[in-house]
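Morning. Coffee machine broken again, so started the prediction first thing and wrote up yesterday's gels while waiting. Chain of 192 residues, entered below exactly as on the submission form.
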Amino acid sequence: MQSTEQADKKLIDQAIEGGATAAKIINADQIVIAQWVRHKCQFGCRLFAKRFTCPPYVPSPSETAETVKQYQQALLVEFRNRHFEDPQDTASQSMVHRSMYNLERQAFLDGFYKATAYGSGPCRLCPECPAEKLEKPSLFNKKDCLNQKMARPSMEAAGIDVYQTVRQAGFEIHVVREKSEPYTSFGLVLLE
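Came back before lunch.
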């Protein structure tokens, strides 16, 4: 079996090969979780309840906090220079979700049997999510997800304060004021 350092380097290299611009191992206690983040999803995102990787289908911030306590470290992954106005952005968002799933899977195969990934933003694995058509969403509807194997909640959907977490880890992040500005996304894989 390979050493932890070798496994960490392998995951970082795989993140870069999968489209990330940077990745680093952080301590799990650097992950900031707050209830207000979930409120921003619920009251600020037009896709609330329209993706199975968004609230109300994902763990609450308190459930996320309990989960994160069970880990020592995580892989934080940066995807820089993405553009809202680029017609390829949906494909780019799908790439982030696929990359995070692949990193979780590789971590598991490398001995991190508790590996759990979080994506960035609303899931774009399918052109249209069956959740969009639900009038009374419940957790039981999640069985209708067309990509259950690969779909993961975003960090923010689960209550993770992405801005504070990535800044504490030494990454730059800023609020995008115009759709024409490039933006940066982050994913996370909890490792143990």
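Residues 89-109 form the longest helix (21 residues). Going to sketch it on the whiteboard this afternoon.
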